[in-house]
Design goal:
Layout: H1 2-11, H2 16-36, H3 43-59, H4 64-72, H5 84-90, H6 93-101, H7 110-115, H8 119-134, H9 136-139
């Protein structure tokens, strides 16, 4: 996945420093996944890279900070999140602050908070949720998912 991310970023013409930022963010996001997930094809394992690729390939988005945010954003599993202090020290204060401002699903003021975010953070949040939702049927509804309600 890392090679796919780098190739996509290069094809977008990202400057070397921007490419480095996104690569470091992706690598940092992969740390907990490498430690906790045995299957390197598990949707949660691939999530940071796929989220970046959604923005690059599907949207044509090449804002390095936003791509770094999307790689590090994890709304489903607390155990797969990177600590904000580590993000701040290894990636930068601006990315750590932007991540902290993105509301979690279920937040009472979710819509209000999302629309008040900068466009780059909104795109990162949207791509992250899209990737999570794209694979939700594999985890949350595995036995009953058929496109309709569970029999019962």
């Amino acid at each position: 996945m890392s090679a796919s991310v780098v190739n996509a970023l290069r094809s977008m013409g990202l400057a070397p420093d921007a490419l480095d930022l996104v690569q470091r963010a992706h690598e940092l996001a992969m740390g907990p996944r490498v430690d906790l997930l045995e299957d390197d094809h598990h949707s949660a394992y691939l999530h940071p890279g796929r989220t970046v690729l959604i923005l690059v390939r599907d949207v044509g988005h090449a804002h390095a900070e936003s791509l770094a945010i999307s790689a590090l954003l994890e709304s489903e599993s607390e155990s797969l999140r990177v600590d904000s202090r580590q993000i701040e020290s290894e990636i930068g204060e601006q990315v750590a602050r932007a991540l902290a401002e993105i509301p979690a699903p279920g937040d009472e003021r979710l819509v209000e908070r999302l629309v008040s975010l900068p466009l780059t953070s909104r795109l990162a949040a949207l791509a992250e949720r899209l990737d999570q939702l794209r694979h939700a049927h594999l985890h949350h509804f595995a036995s009953g998912w058929r496109g309709g309600p569970k029999p019962g």
